[in-house]
Write a structure and sequence with these properties.
Strand content: 5-15%
Mean pLDDT: 93
Strand order of the largest sheet: 1-2-4-3
Low-confidence stretches: 1-18
Shape: globular
Order of helices and strands: HHEEHEEHHEHHEHEHHEHEHHE
Number of helices: 13
């Protein structure tokens, strides 16, 4: 899942049969292992694995987990921040909320019910305090290993009113408003903002440099890093890193990216905009929780989704988006499109031992 801006369009690299790019078969096998169904009696590290299947900006996975007997704490990893696209760490804390919601759903399904709370006085840690309880399974929990940010064209079909109501109900989290847009005229207005934001971002060399740093151009590189934006997840060919970087520099242009976004948004059934009541860390985490619940419910309904956050990342566009969704004066937090589409390769995750504090208890 990408909370940040545009992604690679390299075209033509498939013609190069280099051996150092790795195998998509090996990559798919590793992804299947990372997304294996949660054990019936999981250890805490197993719950962390499910938490890390959440969305994060540029797939940076900006979190660290500290494990105690009856508490799991999710800490922000500021070494993985993206200061150009996310200068105030808004997306980072949204990502913590996404991971926290996965964690709470997974724990509840395996008999460890509890509550999430943000320690806003410190660096912004999210605590999950839990105890033994009756298991609470849900379609959202079942969708966790299947959810992905699908950055491709969808098939244009509309979503039934009953399913839209289920999406809205799933995303009900205190402090967050969800606005669903399906009327084509309003979708076109959001598209205009996405294209304007895309032009502004691509015109910024610092943004382009930061984005390029997080792109993984082939299966071997994606597996070695375990993070970032793997080109195959967007339907693009793979290539050796040196060639991928060269092709990125040649091909990443406003016209082609705007054409791609136009096609993708117009093929979508609708757009979801999440707006928090207050612009602070606690509410950003709440937005992440609501967004993750929406994405999981969409997955359970057979829908795909992808983030189109340019109108919230380019500050000058935020007021226009807020007016469009009827909430002037507030800061929009997350924009995503949804619809029916194909499954793409899953994004990689770092090993659990890379995100868990070495001083943590490893089991209950």
């Amino acid at each position: 899942m990408v909370i940040g801006g545009g992604v690679l369009a390299v075209g033509g690299a498939a013609a190069f049969g280099f051996s150092d790019t790795g195998s998509m078969t090996d990559y798919a096998a590793r992804m299947a292992a990372q997304r294996a169904v949660l054990a019936e009696h999981p250890q805490l590290v197993d719950l962390v694995r499910y938490a890390t299947l959440a969305a994060s900006g540029h797939n940076t996975q900006p979190w660290r987990f500290h494990l105690e007997r009856r508490r799991i704490t999710i800490l922000p990893d500021f070494e993985r921040r993206t200061p150009v696209v996310d200068p105030d760490d808004h997306h980072l804390f949204v990502s913590l909320g996404c991971a926290a919601e996965n964690l709470a759903l997974a724990a509840a399904a395996r008999g460890h019910g509890g509550e999430l709370r943000l320690d806003s006085d410190g660096e912004g840690a999210v605590h999950f305090d839990f105890d033994t309880a009756s298991p609470v399974r849900s379609s959202l929990f079942e969708a966790i290993p299947k959810r992905q940010s699908t950055r491709a064209d969808y098939d244009g079909r509309s979503v039934a009113a009953a399913d839209l109501a289920m999406l809205a109900a799933a995303a009900q989290v205190p402090g967050v408003d969800l606005i669903l847009l399906s009327e084509r005229s309003r979708v076109e207005q959001v598209l205009d903002l996405v294209l304007a934001g895309n032009r502004a971002q691509i015109a910024d060399p610092a943004f382009v440099h930061e984005l390029k740093r997080w792109i993984r151009f082939n299966p071997r590189q994606a597996l070695e890093w375990g993070d970032g934006l793997f080109s195959a997840t967007t339907g693009n060919p793979t290539a050796p890193a040196w060639l991928g970087k060269l092709l990125f520099d040649l091909a990443f242009r406003v016209a082609s990216e705007n054409d791609r976004y136009t096609s993708q948004i117009r093929s979508s059934a609708g757009i979801a905009v999440f707006v928090s009541e207050r612009n602070d860390k606690a509410h950003w985490v709440q937005v992440g929780r609501a967004c993750q619940r929406f994405a999981l419910q969409a997955t359970a309904l057979g829908l795909k989704h992808a983030f189109i956050n340019q109108p919230v990342e380019v500050v000058a566009l935020q007021p226009e988006l807020a007016r469009l969704v009827g909430l002037p004066g507030r800061r929009p937090d997350v924009v995503l499109r949804f619809g029916y589409g194909i499954e793409m390769p899953f994004s990689a995750r770092r090993p659990v031992n890379a995100v868990v504090s070495p001083l943590s208890a490893r089991s209950e």
